[in-house]
Structure to design on (695 residues):
């Protein structure tokens, strides 16, 4: 055995003293409180009184921390981190060969793989557990397996396990390997050793080794719950350390960073100044150590370390609270206890939150259906929900189900489309370049509609010809509009039906088809209707709206002025007509006889066209609302039922088979709920032991 911690340190373990000298009772009858934990402190004087070589690394305060650590270790073991719940962790980082593994070895009194290049290729979770039994118990856990080993073979066992996880060669992996060391005299600590940071890949390492390692390190040190144990070699300038650069990225002021300075024996010059100056912002302080060199036994190494810091002319000036592995162990134990206490309430909250979301989700999953009757009930439920939801968004304009999805706010989108439609009708029927061709078109039509008869009757055929011409100009606009509206509605209906039936993936394709058929039918009806509307407008001119006569009279009030200008060639030939704008009438002076009639024709058309456009928009609005209402209230049900459970459909039979996706989701949720419940028990038991107020 390499380590030489032979004395049973727990002979007096049931009694210890807090700083005021009051007796602290044994863990068996004492409930640890937060206040108690803050009493855990390092007293180097006490330690120095113990003969070198037989001192335990940490005193019996361990017993109070043990339950906390056990609980966290159990949570880690349960793999609660896979639920996204971070656990308080001491993470060891450092540049390559800074001495990370050596520090862990010193703390554990065991040998870890050491050597040139990277030996630590996977995160190594090292769990140290003090025990009374002088016979150490050491095993590895990975990949769901437990592999027992012993002090002589530990290095070999770790290397073999690493090869299994990360492959032979020099590759790395973020799958952790757990090493449990139960041994008399070790501090109760759980730490994670990470691959050392290296800028330049050595032979056989992947090109992006730096990126790979940084990613793993970041993953471990980024969570607020991690304490960063930054291992720095005394022989380097701390400000140039990669590990410092990385930990500063996630912990700028070093509030959760503790520095261990190794190789104090190799570079004692200026060490005191370096740790006092604190150029790199280490919030939790520095501890300088001297690790085992060569084949020294562990107790021998501790004795040499104590002697070094006691007698070395430079190193002996460093405060005793900042040197030696025992001090480091004490500090770590204390820090570990306080982060656990600090994180526990949050962990409990997160477990509860996760549990309730998962319960909600599992309750929303479809029950497995046993009979056709059950399937029918479930189907009607889906249909009912979809119908109600469509009624809300399409008809009532309530969009609480989709507050942030603008597309699903149908009433508003439809109103917008209708406005656009109205604008389009207006712009599509506008005659352009009226100024110099004013009334020419009307004159032409009147000349062709001439008949043998009295002159002062406006021929109706002339009016109808003009009307048909205008209707033709806009006839494609309502078709385009209904096309656009129904495409939009199809998307909404499909999306909504899919959303409500996503628990039955086996039905999705038929449901989509039925929604498409349904909308196609509605669209066809709309197109037929538009056809009729356009034909009706072309066929005849009628309105009972008094607005027509009112507008016409207003427009006709310009007639007198127009005739004056047409007749009197000395007057300027331009004039303004309300609603039509500026016109030039010079070209009409050669055609005086027919101008009056042409003007009348144009003004009738202008007044009437306003009515036509309004009618087209109004009727369209009513038609749409009527069709949508029917779609939601009647047609959808008929169509979907016909398609899915009508003579051709076998949806109910299909519903009896649970889809693999749902089965998978159910089992995933079940596992997760079990894990969370187990975790809750672990934490619950702990809280029973700790009588503290963790609100
Ligand atoms: P890692 O790559 O960070 O895990 O570093 P190792 O623990 O493998 O140490 C790298 C080298 O530094 C090894 O040869 C160690 O023996 C040596 N070393 C570590 N700590 C000390 C120390 O405190 N003093 C001396 N002299 N050498 C040390
Ligand atoms: Mg190492």
């Amino acid at each position: 055995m390499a380590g030489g911690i032979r004395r049973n340190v727990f002979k007096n373990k049931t009694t210890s003293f807090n700083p005021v000298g009051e007796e602290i009772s044994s863990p068996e009858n004492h409930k640890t409180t937060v206040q108690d934990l803050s009493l855990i402190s390092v007293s180097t004087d006490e330690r120095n009184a113990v003969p070198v070589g037989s001192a335990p690394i940490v005193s019996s305060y361990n017993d109070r921390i043990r339950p906390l650590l056990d609980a966290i270790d159990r949570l880690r073991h349960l793999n609660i981190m896979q639920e996204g719940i971070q656990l308080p962790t001491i993470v060891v980082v450092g540049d390559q060969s800074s001495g990370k593994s050596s520090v862990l070895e010193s703390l554990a009194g065991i040998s870890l793989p050491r050597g040139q290049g990277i030996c630590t290729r996977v995160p190594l979770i090292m769990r140290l557990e003090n025990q009374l039994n002088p016979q150490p118990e050491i095993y590895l856990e990975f990949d769901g397996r437990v592999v027992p080993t012993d002090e002589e073979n530990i290095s070999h066992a770790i290397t073999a396990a690493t090869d299994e996880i990360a492959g032979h060669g020099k590759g790395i992996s973020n799958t952790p390997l757990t090493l449990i060391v139960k041994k008399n005299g070790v501090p109760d600590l759980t730490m994670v050793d990470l691959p050392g940071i290296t800028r330049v890949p050595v032979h056989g390492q992947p090109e992006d080794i730096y990126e790979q390692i940084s990613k793993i390190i970041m993953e471990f040190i980024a969570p607020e719950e991690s304490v960063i144990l930054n291992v720095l070699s005394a022989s380097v300038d701390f400000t140039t350390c990669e590990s410092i650069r990385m930990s500063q990225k996630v912990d700028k002021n070093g509030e959760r960073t503790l520095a261990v300075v190794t190789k104090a024996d190799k570079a004692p010059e200026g060490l005191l100044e370096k740790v006092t100056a604190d150029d790199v912002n280490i919030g939790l302080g520095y501890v300088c150590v001297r690790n085992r060199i060569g084949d020294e036994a562990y107790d021998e190494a501790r004795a040499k370390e104590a002697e070094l810091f006691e007698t070395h002319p430079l190193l002996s000036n460093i405060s005793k609270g900042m040197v030696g592995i025992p001090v480091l162990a004490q500090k770590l134990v204390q820090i570990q206890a306080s982060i656990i206490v600090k994180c526990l309430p949050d962990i409990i909250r997160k477990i509860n939150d996760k549990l309730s979301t998962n319960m909600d989700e599992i309750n929303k999953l479809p029950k497995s259906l046993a009979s056709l009757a059950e399937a029918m009930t479930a189907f009607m439920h889906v249909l009912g929900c979809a119908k109600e939801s469509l009624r809300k968004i399409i008809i009532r304009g309530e969009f609480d189900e989709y507050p942030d999805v603008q597309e699903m706010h149908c009433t508003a989108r439809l109103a917008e489309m209708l406005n656009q439609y109205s604008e389009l009708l207006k712009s599509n029927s506008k005659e352009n370049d009226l100024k110099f061709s004013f009334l020419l078109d009307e004159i032409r039509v009147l000349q062709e509609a001439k008949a043998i008869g009295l002159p002062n009757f406006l021929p109706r055929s002339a009016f109808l010809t003009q009307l048909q011409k205008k209707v033709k100009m806009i006839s494609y606009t309502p078709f385009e509009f209904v096309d656009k509206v129904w495409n939009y509605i199809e998307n909404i209906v499909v999306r909504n039906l899919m959303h409500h039936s996503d628990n039955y993936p086996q039905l999705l394709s038929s449901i989509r088809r039925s929604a498409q058929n349904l909308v196609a039918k509605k669209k066809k009806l709309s197109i037929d209707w538009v056809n009729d509307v356009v034909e009706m407008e072309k066929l005849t001119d009628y309105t009972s709206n008094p607005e027509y006569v009112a507008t016409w009279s207003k427009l006709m009030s310009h007639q007198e002025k127009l005739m004056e200008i047409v007749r009197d060639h000395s007057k300027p030939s331009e004039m303004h007509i309300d609603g039509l704008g500026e016109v030039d009438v010079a070209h009409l002076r050669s055609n005086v006889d027919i101008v009056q009639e042409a003007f009348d024709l144009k003004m009738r058309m202008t007044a009437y066209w306003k009515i036509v456009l309004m009618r087209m928009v109004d009727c369209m609005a009513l038609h749409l609302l009527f069709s949508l209402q029917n779609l939601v209230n009647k047609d959808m049900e008929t169509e979907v039922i016909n398609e899915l459970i009508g003579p051709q459909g076998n949806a109910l039979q299909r519903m009896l088979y649970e889809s693999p996706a749902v089965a998978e989701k159910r089992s995933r949720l079940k596992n997760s709920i079990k894990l969370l419940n187990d975790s809750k028990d672990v934490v619950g038991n702990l809280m029973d032991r700790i009588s503290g107020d963790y609100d």
